[in-house]
Every structure is written in structure tokens, then in C-alpha cells.
Amino acid sequence: MHARKALAATLAVGMAIGPTTAAVVTLGALVSPAVAQGDGHGRGHHATANRGNSRRDGGSSTSTQARTVTLRGIITGTPTATSLVITRVDHERNNCLAMPTTETIMLDSHTTFSTLSNPSAAVGDLVTGDKVAVTLNVPAGTGPLTVAATSVADRGAPAPITCAVRGTAGSGVVGSSFTVLLRANGGHHHRGRGNHNSVRHGRASTTSPASLTVSFDTNTVFVDPGNPSATIQNVAPGDRLIVIWSVPPGTPIANMPAAAKVVDLGSPPPIRYRAAGVAASGAPTTSISLTVNHLHPNVAPTFTDGSTLAVQINPSTVFVDAGNPTATIGSIVQGDRLIVVWRAAPGIAAVNLPAATRVIDLGH
């Protein structure tokens, strides 16, 4: 009864405002509340479901999309119809202490080739030693080296790069070469990050040989500050050196040609060495026999705990003995605890230490 009254009232209002409007109002009144609330349980529900399906469809589509990968390097060996070997280089930076990474790229009948002068080249137009950019269309979840290359672009001979290492001269000249003792990591300034052998990063791992044989020729320039006419003869063992080459990127350190430049910075400033022990004998005259029992952090190389060392002295050696302002080497008796100090070049062996600068006698 109440529903019929409500409908009659609605129809009356509709007649008052016009037949078209009445039909719309009547339809809205007859529709169930759940459907009438289109932004809630009706249309809203279906829209949400559609958006969910769209997201799922979109996610599925994205997961199967391929990605474009570009690998750069130097052509190694002779390319074939099915493969191309390249040596990766680290963006042609000073990477002469890097271990080059070699990778084999798959080729097939769909791979296209180009050179600087021929955009429609063939695989036979690729030149060993040229730098190359390889493009691959790699499906998601697939490794780049498991698919054939889409295109290979030969970009010609690479420009040489400047490669430099730091170290000290380790020996004199033998023929047309000399030995350089390299600093830790060869003085190489490039920082390694992550897996340097990975295809993703395209970086090679760094190595640090302890020494390096450096060749020179008539074109090698020797630079010695203060000596404008420096030659190889001015390089002395222990001198700090910077060796510079100009080579194609990716050249291994072992295959370096004659150096382009050798900068001789002279011998390094002396540093302080210390050792502690006991006098192995009494009444020394020209040297002190020291049995080492404590290795200080700045102990000279080849020092070992328990070893016996002949400590040399000279007129400049200072002897310190509490309560004895006129202490000399003759004041030392067997069993005295001693601290010996030297100033010498970095890296010097214990047996090659010069005369001690100071000997501190702590008594028994």
C-alpha cells in the first residue's frame, strides 16, 4: 500500500515536470537500491573488477616484454657466420691493470651488420681489432649471451688511451727494459664495484702484479724534475716512478709496448723504523747484536720475532740511558732491553738498514 502511494506520488510529480523527466524518475525509483548506487555496489564493483583484470593482463604482458641490451668491446679473432668474439673494455678508461673479459656473441641469418662506410655490410666486413657495438633483443629472464645478436656495428679502430702505473724502480737496466715494483693495486685509481666479469656491468676485474718489466726505446721520454736532459741512466733503484703508455683500450698489462713516458720522482723520503729486543752481547764497539723480541707496527721488512740483527752505529747515533747523560755504546751490557730507531727508505730490508739514529737502553 505504501509503495503504491509512493509510486502514485512520483507519477504525479513526473506529470507536473513533463513526460520525459517522469520516465527517468520512475525508472530510478523502480531500480533496486543496490543497482541505483552505481558508484558503490553496482557500477563500482564491475569497474573494480575490470581494473583488476587490466592490471593482471598488463602485468602478464610486461613480464614477457624483451629488453634491448648493447654490448661494447674490441673484436677478437676472426668473426664467423655464427659467432663473434669480443673483448670487453671498461668504457675506454685507464684500465691497463684490468683483466680483460672475453665474450662470445651468437650470430644468425637475421643479424644485420654495418661499418662506418657501409650501413648494409656483411659479417666479412668486420675487422679484427676494431671497436664494435652489439645490440641484442633479450626476452625477460633470459641471459644476453643466449640469444643471437640483432645488429653488429663496426665503429673502426679504437683511439688509443693513456695508461699509467706507479711504483719504484726495482733494478737497473737490462738491455732495453727495467723492473718496476708496483704499489698496491699498481697505483690504479679505478675502483672496482660488484662483479666485474658480469655482462650486465661490462667491467673487467682488476689485478695487481707485484712487479712489471717495462720496455723503452728511442721514443720513450724520460722526465726528471730539475734535470731537463734526463735519460734512462738517471733511473736508480728505489726511485719513485710513473710509467705511461698510449695503447688501444683493452691492452693487457703484460703486452704493453715500449713506454711513452717515464717520470722519475726520485727516491722517497725516509721513514722511521723501530725494533725492540735485548743486547745479545756486552761491551759492543762498532755494532750491537740485538735479539728482537717485539715487532713494532713500523718494523722494517723481513724482521722476525726472535731474530738477531747487527745494529750498525756511526758518530751521529744518539744513545739514551736514563740517569746517564753521557751514555755511549760502551754503556750497553748483555741482557739490556733496547729500543732501536732508524730512518731509512720505505721497504728497505732489515739487513740493509743504515746506522741507527737512536738507541734507548732501558737496562735489565
General shape: elongated
Count structural domains: 4
Instruction: Describe the main β-sheet briefly.
Output: 6 strands, mixed
Q: Nearest-angstrom radius of gyration?
A: 41 Å
SSE series: HHHHEEEEEEEEEEEEEEEEEEEE
Per CATH, the architecture of the largest domain is: Beta Barrel
What percent of the residues sit in helical stretches (DSSP H or I)?
A: 10-25%
CATH class of the largest domain: Mainly Beta
Mean pLDDT metric:
77
Structural class: alpha+beta
Strands side by side in the biggest sheet: 4-2-1-6-7-5
First CA to last CA: what distance?
122 Å
Number of DSSP-assigned strands: 20
Counting DSSP H or I runs of 4 or more residues, the number of helices is: 4
The fraction of residues in strands falls at 25-35%
Protein model, in words:
The chain is of the alpha+beta class. It has four domains: 2-63, no CATH class; 66-154, OB fold (Dihydrolipoamide Acetyltransferase, E2P); 161-264, OB fold (Dihydrolipoamide Acetyltransferase, E2P), CATH 2.40.50; 271-361, OB fold (Dihydrolipoamide Acetyltransferase, E2P) (Beta Barrel). 15% of the residues lie in helices and 32% in strands. The chain has four helices and 20 strands. The chain has helices at 2-17, 19-30, 33-36, 43-63; strands at 66-76, 83-88, 98-99, 101-106, 112-114, 131-139, 151-154, 161-169, 177-182, 205-206, 211-215, 221-223, 240-247, 261-264, 271-279, 287-295, 308-312, 318-321, 337-344, 358-361. The strands form four sheets. The chain has a six-stranded mixed β-sheet with strand order 4-2-1-6-7-5, with no helix packed on it. Strands 11-9-8-13-14-12 form a six-stranded mixed β-sheet, with no helix packed on it. A hairpin with a 7-residue loop joins strand 15 and strand 16. The longest helix has 21 residues, at 43-63. It is elongated. The chain starts with a helix and ends with a strand. The relative contact order is 0.10. Residues 10-62 and 185-206 have low confidence and may be disordered.
